[in-house]
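Table S2 (continued). Query chain:
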Amino acid sequence: MFSLLQEAATTAVETTEGVVVTDEAAHGADAATHGVDAAGHATEAAGLPQLDIATFGNQIFWLVVTLVVLYLVLSRVALPRIAAVLSDRQGAVTGDLMAAEEFKQKAKEAEAAYDKALADARSEAQAIVAQNRTEIQTELDAAIAKADAEISARAAESEARIREIRASADESAREVARDVTAQLVSSFGGNADDAAVASAVDARMKGAVQ
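Corresponding output:
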């Protein structure tokens, strides 16, 4: 019996402690909720920090410091490098333009020299052709004259030879005719007179030639 009473008392005490702890936790949660609400109301009341008039002096000071630092960095480091790069690029572009203009001038001079050399070569070729033509014509005229002279000489020589051959042939024919005539007269029993035979043969030959 005593043990049952003791267990009941222990259970009641634990139940009471749990209720007390639960109430304290609930009060803590309510306090935290009220704290969050208070912080939110404080933030809403304060607004954005950069729009707070009380901080304008510090903001302007740091803005000026930042601008000065940026100016120093740009003027001492960035801008000189940019200016150097632009200057180098401008120098390179100017040099390229000058080189291109020089090459263009050299190309014009080379073209003019080529045209002049071509004209000189044509003139020289025409002069050589004219000179060779004159020399060839002179040599041709000389060769033709020489050939004409040789042909005339050979023609005269041939005519002389022909006359000689003709005269020799006539004389040979007369002698043959005289011999044949004398033999014919002798064969017929006549007395062949050389003078008469020669006269008769000459007369006959002249008549045959006419």
